[in-house]
Amino acid sequence: MIQFHNLPIEFKGKDGVLKEWLTIIGSNHGSEIGNLAYNFISNEEILSINWQYLKHDYYTDIITFGYSEGEKVEGEIYISEEQVRQQASEYKVSEQQELLRVICHGLLHLIGFNDVSQEEKSRMREEEEKSLILHAQIIGN
Fold it and tell me: Could you tell me the domains of the chain?
């Protein structure tokens, strides 16, 4: 079951499409979605989580905690809506597109993709792009 807490206004009433999209992303990678919670929070809240659990004293766009067992993907994802909106401006993309990229980024981490090395970052970006294309296909764009 996929849950969204404090879903950004761009996606109000569209959570069914997001759930379908995320389920397909998981399926495309041989994973089934179990309990997955997306929490959209403030910069201050993500800073607190980042410090409390990772001992990082900086803002970030996303923090992912995985509880997966086998092929079933489970976890909690925290996304700073403020940070994502700032990034959209920096990257010169729409806020909706950047939110979608970060949403799928969290799921990709839970599936097993990493972004530490340059090679991993490139692979993650490829998967994010594929996921954004898939979303556009689902909504008919």
Answer: 2-139 (3.40.390.30)
